[in-house]
Structures are given as structure tokens and as C-alpha cells.
Write a structure and sequence with these properties.
With 831 residues, the chain is an alpha/beta fold. It is built from 26 helices and 32 strands. The strands form 7 sheets. It has a 9-stranded mixed β-sheet, sandwiched between helices. The longest helix is centred in the first third of the chain and has 17 residues. The radius of gyration is 30 Å and the shape is globular.
């Protein structure tokens, strides 16, 4: 885990954390207690090393925990040209580190200083630091000679130690390159704490050593526990909707496709469907799949499941049938609620398919006692072991989520909330049940149009549309490509799913008068932290913010102890009633991630380990740095590379594979599959993956290799996986040339957007490097250039040059048909 952690912090160094002050911190005196001084001497004797080796090892371990630099250069005199190289990692024992340091001190300098590269690898690194290697001047003497920081300032961190023979030890620290949020006194205190822990248990790993004293750990935990909300009056998720339906059955609950459906109609049809589900044996704690397009029928289906006390399992109609089969089998669903368009496609599933009523009504649902402890929904996320895993949420957790939403956003009847997030992503819970709980209206984006910025701009311009959610990358595309249609009633724009750059905030405030809320959370919890505002003075990414609602946040080390401000640690989340039950049928991963709380506010409370690396900034805000594992986000969607690798490895011609992330020309993250295969053509492999994985998990490019790179110990060396080339990206392309005229013009636009040299007329846009955001760029150029309107949904249905040219030609024909000869001639002259 340590190497992944260090790489994540390194990647975040220049983008996701504030830069430190350029001025060197002042010297800080330190003096170990008499007990620590004795422990240092005893540990040195026990390990057979010098005392200064123990203290220097503690210095290196402390600096590593702050900066994550694994390579260090030690000087023992100011101005010394030659250095002692030492390798530091979180997985090394302190004893081994001390012995290495002792050997270096004993045998003297052994190498020339390394040249520093152009990239700083610490969190909060600035372009001016230019240091990928930790440099430390460590001077040990038996008589005081005064501070030597000036002479050693260029060496980085300075440790000036005086150890009187048989007497006390004291010194002065000049720590260099502290990350944002850290300070020199805190660093000195961390050194003394780590030294105490290391001398007490020298066999412990560097990552396990404490940086805060027990008193400071308790103080930090108490601060997190002191400020959180409590919701004593929570009710099951659907009951607020039922109250709203009784208050005003004629109020509009859903607007979709130009049609309005009232609360009374939704409630009556949900009661009718609940009766049908009851006849299929569905009841409390049953799991029911829901495979319905974005529509009023989707709301009917979800409410009907909840009215039976059952939990819904979202199944997007766009998911491959094999993926649906895997999820429904793993969840052991009792039934799948479908719309008629899906019935034939899913007919092979070994469970009942229940249709959504489009008319009819029942005054009441069948009797079912639904409590806060009953399951409400199970969301399937990418699984590191090769198969998706279900996260089971009960009504208590779901209701706590909506309670915070209701307090913060104060929605009212008549307000509209845009629902565009596909149901398989749990942000949809906000968009659906938030307005329903308040008697407000869900304004639905057309199916398949969640990334159509022209369509979205029309929704935002709709009267009393007050709330919309974006993934940051889609908001960026919206600001680039959407028409500048006013959104006069928009009050809140919510971001989540990806790190958001501060530059996005500036662009947002130029376009909208609304508040921007950057929220952070997981499927296993809810949104647990938030930042909001219209300006941010920091650099890099917007902060995750502070804990919200019933949640409490802790930045902890490997032993679940708080770390000092500025030090990278794992973000862990707690909240009474705010965590998922766990992973369906997976006790081992559940026990690994949902652990006993070391700082509970109630007996038996659990803590969720998110796997996200964060640090606390100088303003007390939480800043995202990366991951401790191989999980990634692709356009806001969670992807475990292990699951993609497992699917690819199931193909009979794949001998080895690894999946990595690369950045395209626009800086967007994409998946690359590095494969060792027995065929020249990877198209069959891509089709194989397409039948088993959702679109967001499909590799954008396949890189054929003779063998995967490995470390000397035999592990996969992900750092040596080659970046995809233009040839790799075009490997799945065809050879049929676009026809002269319109097809060639459109092919030229494809080449420009995708950054490739050749496009065939039948190439699939998404097989040659395209994604949903690039499709927006392409359609924007086509629609503007030809003065037509080709929708995202139409393009996704057949994303080829040939089909796109036909769509443009059809649109032009229809456009010209309604023009005078003079208007048509003018249009054709422009084209």
C-alpha cells in the first residue's frame, strides 16, 4: 500500500494542495525527556548502532511521513559535497532503517548528490522547490557550537544536535518544505513523539509509528466528535413522499418528456405495483432489481419496492445483459421491475419480470411494516476482486442523508430539481427523493441525454429550477459548450464524484449566480463533507471541505491514530446510523473496511475506511491527495482496475493483462488495457469486455505487449507500463475511407477531436479513443458548423462517421425544406 500511497501523493503534489510559504521556517528547539534520552541509548545498544543513527532514523521517518519522499541524502557537515544515500519507506521497520543509517554514518559518504528533477513529490509541492530527493543536514556534536541553519539552508531540513557525554540531548530543527497545514513546532513535536514510539517498539513499520502524543490524539478525535448533527425524528425513505401526496395529490411530482405526473398519480400507481410485487413474494428485506429508463415509471417502481419494505437494486437499461445477470444473481433478487421495452432483452433472467403500470391506481399499498432498520437499496460498485460488490444501505442511513439535504436546501412545493444522474450512481438518490420529500418537482432529463449540454441548458432555464448536480468534468464541458442560456432561478449547483480544480470555480461564477457546493462522499456512507462558496484563495483543487450532517471525519495512520495537520493520512468516516450495513455476502471485505471505532460516541460504533488519502490544510479544511489502492474515478465513476483485469483475463487468448490510467490530450482520465494476447486483433477482446462491463469501465485503448513489466521481486511494475501511442489508439479502427463530401468533412472533425491521423467511415467513435465528453466537443463542432441539431442520444445510438453524416444530411434536408430558395442558397453557401 505504501508505494501506491506515495505515488498518489506525488501525483497530487502540483494540483491538489496549497503550496507552502516560500520562506524557510524558523528554527525550533527540541529536547527529549530524560526517559526518552535513556530509551534512545538503550535502543541504540540493543540494535548495535550509534545513538545518532537512532535519532537520524527518527528524523528521516518523520520527514518521510510528511513528504512521502522515499530517497534521502544525508550530509553530516555544512557545505559537504558528498552525501550518504538512504532509502525510506513506510513498510520498512524502524530497526532496519536505523541499521542502514548507522552503516552510512560508519562508512562515510558513498555517493555524489543526485541531480534534482523538475518535479516536487510532496503534497503542497511548489514549482520553486524542484526537489524529488529529501535532503537533510544532520550535525551531531558533544559541545554546542550555535545554530548552523544558514550554512546548511540549501541542504533542506537541518537537524543540529548537541549530546553531552552522559548528559541531556538537545537540538534545533529547521524543517524544510513543510506541506500546507503543517508548521515547524508541530514537526518538532512529531519527531519527539515518533522517537518515543520507535524506541519502545523498534520492530514497528515506519508507517505505524505515532506522530501525535496520546493526549493530542484524544484531543483531535474529541474535536471531530464534538460537532455533528443529530436527527431524532427519522422515518423510512418513502414516507415523506406519502405525506406530500396526501397534502396535495394534484401537485406535480415528475416532469419528463413534456408530460407532468402528479403526486396522487405516482402514489396510486406505486400502490398498484406494490400489490403485484407482494403477489410475487416480495416483502421486507427482499431485494428487487429496477431496470427502467428515466421517467415517471422509474419513480413509481422505486416507491413500490420501498412500500413493500424491500430494497431496490438499480439496473440501468444500458447495462449489458451479462452484467445484469451477474448483479441480479449476486444480490439474489426476488424479481426485476422492468418497462416493456426491456422485457424481451431480460427474458432469460431466472427471476420474475414485473412490469410497471402506466395507468390505474390503488388507494393503499398492501400492508407492510417498514422500519428504519430495513434495507432501502443496494448499490453495486466496481469490485477489486474481479466482480462488482453490492453496498447495502438501510432506511436509517438513507433518511439521514435526506435530513441533511432538507435542512441545507429548503426545497419548497413548486421548486424543480433536475434529475439526470443514471440510477446506477447513488447521486440519483438526492435528485429523486430530495424533491419528493419536500413536495417539489423532479425535472427529468431525457433518457440518454444526461451529458447533452444543449438539453441541460434548456432544463436549467426552466422556471423555478433551483438545483442541479454535476460531475466536475461535465460541468467543465457545460461551461465550454452549452449555449449561454440564462438560468435565473438556479440557486445551488452541486459537484461530487471527482476532484474539482479551483479554476472551475472561476469559470462557474462567470456564468452563474448560484452557489457552488463541492461535496464528497461514498456509496458506503453518503455525502460526508462539503465546501461551498463563490471564491477560493487556495491553489490547485477545491477542498473536500468540512464534515457535514451526522458524519465525523478522521485523518488516520495505518494504526487508526490521528496524524498532525498537513500529514497525509487515510480519511475515515463515522456517523451514528450513517454507514452502510456492509457488502452483500462479503464478510471479509466488510470487516476490512467497516472496523471498530477507536473513538466512538456510542458503544459498538463502526468506522468506515475510505481508502482516500487526504491532509488537513491550514484553514482546517480537508484536501484530497489520492488513493491508497488502485481504485480510480473515470468521469466521476468508481472503477477498480482489478475488476476490469479479471474480466479481460477471462478471455481465452489473454495470457496476461494490466489496466492503467492515462490522460488524454484534454487531461481527462481514461483506461488503458495492457494485454499479452495470442492474436493481432484486439477487437474480439474489446467486444468480449463490452458484453460484461458497463461503458464507463471499458478501456479506451488496448496496448499489446510481449510481456508485462515486473519488479525484481516479481510484482507487476505499473510505473513501467508504456503510455498508449497514437498507433495503439487507432488499432481498433477500420480501413474503409469516408466518402467524398460530407463524410470527409465529418471525419476531419473526428481526427481533430480525437487527436488521431486516420478515421474510417464505420469506425465506432468510442473504439478509437472517444468518450462522452469528447462526443460533446464533436457534436458542438458539427452542430455549429452545419447549423443543425444532432443530439447526444442519436449519436450514441450509432456513433460512426457514416451514421453521423446521414443524420446531418437528414437534418439539413429538413431545414432546407422549410426555407425559401434564397434562404436555402444562403445556408448552402455557408456550408
Amino acid at each position: 500500500m505504501t508505494s501506491t500511497l506515495n505515488e498518489s501523493v506525488a501525483r497530487a503534489a502540483t494540483t491538489d494542495h496549497d503550496a507552502p510559504t516560500a520562506e524557510a521556517p524558523p528554527g525550533v528547539p527540541f529536547r527529549p525527556t530524560a526517559a526518552s534520552r535513556r530509551a534512545l541509548a538503550e535502543t541504540a545498544a540493543h540494535l548495535g548502532v550509534r545513538e545518532e543513527a537512532v535519532l537520524l532514523a527518527a528524523t528521516l521517518a518523520t520527514q518521510f511521513r510528511y513528504t512521502r519522499r522515499e530517497n534521502a541524502e544525508i550530509r553530516t557537515e555544512p557545505g559537504q559535497d558528498r552525501v550518504i544515500p538512504v532509502a525510506v519507506s513506510g513498510d520498512r521497520s524502524f530497526a532496519d532503517l536505523a541499521r542502514d543509517v548507522h552503516a552510512g554514518l560508519l562508512h562515510g559518504p558513498t555517493a555524489q548528490p543526485e541531480d534534482t528533477g523538475p518535479g516536487d513529490t510532496r503534497p503542497g509541492g511548489s514549482a520553486g522547490a524542484h526537489r524529488a530527493v529529501e535532503r537533510i543536514l544532520f550535525v551531531w556534536s558533544t559541545t554546542p557550537e550555535g545554530p548552523r541553519a544558514a550554512a546548511g539552508a540549501a541542504a533542506g531540513t537541518v537537524v543540529d544536535v548537541v549530546a553531552e557525554d552522559g548528559g541531556p540531548l538537545s537540538g534545533t530543527l529547521y524543517p524544510a518544505d513543510l506541506p500546507a497545514g503543517a508548521d515547524a513546532p508541530g514537526w518538532a513535536a512529531a519527531l519527539l513523539t515518533l522517537l518515543t514510539d520507535a524506541t519502545a517498539r523498534p520492530g514497528a513499520r515506519v508507517e505505524e509509528l505515532a506522530l501525535l502524543s496520546e493526549a493530542h490524539q484524544a484531543e483531535t478525535a474529541a474535536a471531530a466528535n464534538a460537532h455533528h448533527e443529530r436527527y431524532p425524528d427519522l422515518r423510512p425513505l418513502h414516507t415523506a413522499f406519502e405525506d406530500a401526496a396526501r397534502r396535495d395529490p394534484h401537485a406535480v411530482a415528475v416532469e419528463a418528456g413534456g408530460r407532468s405526473t402528479t403526486y396522487g398519480e405516482i402514489d396510486g400507481r406505486a400502490n398498484l405495483l406494490a400489490a403485484t410485487l407482494a403477489e410475487s413474494g416480495v416483502g421486507p428485506e427482499s431485494l428487487v432489481g429496477v431496470c427502467v429508463e428515466r421517467s415517471a415509471e422509474l419513480v413509481v417502481a422505486l416507491l413500490a419496492v420501498l412500500k413493500r419494505g424491500a430494497a431496490f437494486v438499480p439496473l440501468a437499461p444500458a447495462l449489458p445483459v451479462e452484467r445484469v445477470a451477474v448483479v441480479t444473481a449476486d444480490a439474489q433478487v426476488h424479481a426485476v421491475v422492468v418497462e416493456e421495452a426491456q422485457r424481451a432483452r431480460l427474458a432469460a433472467l431466472p427471476v420474475p419480470l414485473v412490469g410497471v403500470p402506466t395507468e390505474g391506481s390503488a388507494p393503499h399499498p398492501p400492508q407492510a411494516e417498514v422500519t428504519l432498520d430495513h434495507a432501502a437499496y443496494a448499490y453495486y460498485t466496481s469490485g477489486s476482486t474481479g466482480t462488482p460488490k453490492g453496498v447495502l444501505i438501510d432506511h436509517r442511513c438513507a433518511a439521514g442523508r435526506l435530513a441533511w439535504l432538507g435542512r441545507r436546501y429548503d426545497l419548497n412545493p413548486g421548486d424543480r430539481v433536475v434529475h439526470k444522474t443514471p440510477l446506477i450512481f447513488d447521486v440519483a438518490i438526492w435528485e429523486l427523493f430530495g424533491p419528493l420529500a419536500a413536495g417539489a418537482t423532479i425535472l427529468m432529463a431525457d433518457p440518454g441525454a444526461e451529458s447533452d449540454v444543449v438539453h441541460l441548458s434548456a432544463l436549467l432555464a426552466t422556471e423555478r429550477t433551483v438545483f442541479v448536480h454535476f460531475v466536475p468534468s461535465l460541468l467543465n464541458a457545460y461551461l465550454d459548450l452549452a449555449p449561454r442560456t440564462p438560468a435565473p432561478d438556479l440557486r445551488w449547483v452541486q459537484l461530487s464524484g471527482e476532484a474539482a480544480g479551483s479554476h472551475l470555480l472561476g469559470r462557474f461564477t462567470e456564468r452563474f449566480d448560484a452557489e457552488l457546493h463541492n461535496l464528497y462522499g461514498q456509496t458506503e456512507t453518503s455525502e460526508v463533507a462539503g465546501w461551498e462558496g463563490r471564491s477560493y484563495a487556495g491553489t490547485g483543487g477545491l477542498p473536500l471541505g468540512r464534515q457535514i450532517g451526522l458524519y465525523r471525519l478522521f485523518v488516520l495512520d495505518d494504526d487508526l491514530r490521528p496524524v498532525p495537520p498537513g500529514v497525509p493520512g487515510e480519511l475515515c468516516v463515522s456517523g451514528v446510523g450513517g454507514l452502510a450495513r456492509g457488502y452483500l455476502g462479503r464478510p471479509a471485505p466488510t470487516a476490512e473496511r467497516f472496523v471498530p471505532h477507536p473513538y466512538p460516541v456510542e458503544p459498538g460504533e463502526r468506522l468506515y475506511r475510505t481508502g482516500d488519502l487526504v491532509a488537513t490544510g491550514p484553514d482546517g479544511q480537508t484536501h484530497y491527495l489520492g488513493r491508497v489502492d488502485d481504485q480510480i474515478k473515470i468521469r466521476g465513476c468508481r472503477v477498480e482496475t482489478g475488476e476490469v483485469e479479471a474480466v479481460l483475463a477471462g478471455h481465452p487468448e489473454v495470457r496476461a493483462c494490466a489496466v492503467s490510467v492515462f490522460r488524454d490530450e484534454d487531461g481527462a482520465a481514461q483506461l488503458a488495457a495492457h494485454v499479452v494476447v495470442d492474436t493481432e486483433d484486439v477487437e474480439d477482446l474489446a467486444a468480449y469486455a463490452g458484453r460484461r462491463l458497463p461503458g464507463y469501465m471499458l478501456p479506451a485503448v488496448y496496448v499489446r505487449l510481449d510481456a508485462l513489466p515486473h519488479t525484481p521481486s516479481g510484482k507487476l511494475d505499473r510505473l513501467r507500463l508504456p503510455a498508449p501511442t497514437a498507433a495503439d489508439r487507432q488499432a481498433r479502427g477500420g480501413t474503409d475511407e469516408p466518402h467524398p463530401g460530407l463524410e470527409r468533412e465529418i471525419a476531419g472533425l473526428w481526427r481533430s477531436v480525437l487527436g488521431i491521423e486516420r478515421v474510417a467511415r464505420t469506425d465506432n467513435f468510442f473504439s478509437v479513443g472517444g468518450n462522452s465528453l469528447k462526443s460533446l466537443q464533436l457534436l458542438n463542432r458539427i452542430n455549429a458548423g452545419f447549423d443543425v441539431r444532432v443530439s447526444v442520444r442519436d449519436f450514441f445510438a450509432e456513433p460512426t462517421v457514416e451514421a453521423l453524416a446521414s443524420a446531418v444530411e437528414k437534418a439539413l434536408t429538413e431545414l432546407v425544406a422549410g426555407m425559401t430558395d434564397e434562404e436555402a442558397a444562403t445556408l448552402l453557401s455557408r456550408l
